[in-house]
């Protein structure tokens, strides 16, 4: 952690996350101005970006909001280039800067790769970075186990371990331990957590409540969860981008319909073919790891190469801009000035269905 001050925080255990979507009652939110903090969990994808723009459209002051991004490949000195789009963190940072919203990053040590390669050990420590300072939340308790298996392509988070280990639990551990969010029994902190799931995306998400008590709720913290675009369709999402003339994450410009991990386990054959075309080094790295583990990402036991051989490149933009978009997507830097388009247009990845990302 050369450039950053590092602080050890409290002890933590292995994760415990509910695995089923159960019908939970919706709750009444407080008036927005009564929350001490409004956190938007921002992946950089279209739905969480739309949540942010919607809140600003509704008059929520930018200084009342903060953007939290979980870096799925780890962060700073322990990042391992593996599944994520290289540009995502820079895009998220530029978006926050453009809108004047505080932005911070959280991650599990060595990200998805570290968890995938875990052998007879605890899951990795969690870190967060705020104002240039890295804070360390060590994992000391729990059971030493071996992973060495890809996450399963399933909505069941017990077997699709990537989302809970590098996103959901990382977010919760930071919220539960960050000093800014600790209240008292007499005066609990009031926190609203906004996420961008939409019912249109999957039958699993169709069951989500729009509002509920968040898992970080405690006697010293009132934490509510809100999914403000849960019933929006894709047209409404792109409409808000158009109103703001906002450049979508470069993955959409390259033809991807979901901006989750570049090598998301749910990628369709077309997306694997496209990844092999624009980022062959990344693609073949995953091929090598499949061989090393003797385990395929695809639960139907097709290798990545077999899947990529079944797909097509028809969604990649045909014009000369493709190389510009690919360069943007595979770069680690992004200028906030490039976020506003002179003439907004739908990206190649728009209206390609919901398959290819988390369910
Ligand atoms: S985007 Fe895909 S691979 Fe990445 S964490 Fe989510 S489900 Fe897993």
Automatic annotation (TrEMBL):
Protein name, per record: Uncharacterized protein
An example Gene Ontology molecular-function term: catalytic activity
Biological classification of the source: Bacteria, Bacillati, Bacillota, Bacilli, Bacillales
Native source organism of the sequence: Aneurinibacillus soli
């Amino acid at each position: 952690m050369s450039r950053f001050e590092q602080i050890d925080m409290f002890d933590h255990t292995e994760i415990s996350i509910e695995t089923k979507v159960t019908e939970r009652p919706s709750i009444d939110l407080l008036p927005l101005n009564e929350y001490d903090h409004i956190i938007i969990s921002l992946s950089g994808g279209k739905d969480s970006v739309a949540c942010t723009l919607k809140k600003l459209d509704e008059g929520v002051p930018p200084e009342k909001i903060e953007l939290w991004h979980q870096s799925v490949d780890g962060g700073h000195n322990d990042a391992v280039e593996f599944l994520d789009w290289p540009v995502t963190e820079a895009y998220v940072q530029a978006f926050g800067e453009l809108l004047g919203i505080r932005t911070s990053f959280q991650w599990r040590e060595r990200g998805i790769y570290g968890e995938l390669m875990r052998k007879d050990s605890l899951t990795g420590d969690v870190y967060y970075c705020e104002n240039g300072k890295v804070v360390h939340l060590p994992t000391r308790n729990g059971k030493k186990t071996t992973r060495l298996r890809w996450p399963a392509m399933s909505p069941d988070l017990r077997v699709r371990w990537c989302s809970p280990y590098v996103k959901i639990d990382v977010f919760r551990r930071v919220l539960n331990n960050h000093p800014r969010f600790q209240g008292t029994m007499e005066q609990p902190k009031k926190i609203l957590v906004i996420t961008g799931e939409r019912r249109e995306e999957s039958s699993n998400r169709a069951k989500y409540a729009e509002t509920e008590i968040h898992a970080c709720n405690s006697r010293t913290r009132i934490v509510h969860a809100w999914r403000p675009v849960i019933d929006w369709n894709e047209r409404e999402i792109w409409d808000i981008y158009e109103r703001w003339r906002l450049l979508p994450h470069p993955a959409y410009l390259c033809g991807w319909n979901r901006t989750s991990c570049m090598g998301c386990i749910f990628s369709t054959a077309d997306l694997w073919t496209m990844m092999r075309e624009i980022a062959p080094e990344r693609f073949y790295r995953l091929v090598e790891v499949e061989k090393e583990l003797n385990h395929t990402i695809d639960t139907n036991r097709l290798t990545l190469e077999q899947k990529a051989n079944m797909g097509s490149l028809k969604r990649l933009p045909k014009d000369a801009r493709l190389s510009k978009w690919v360069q943007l997507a595979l770069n680690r830097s992004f200028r906030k000035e490039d976020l506003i388009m002179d003439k907004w247009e739908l990206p190649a990845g728009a209206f390609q269905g919901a398959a290819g990302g988390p369910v």
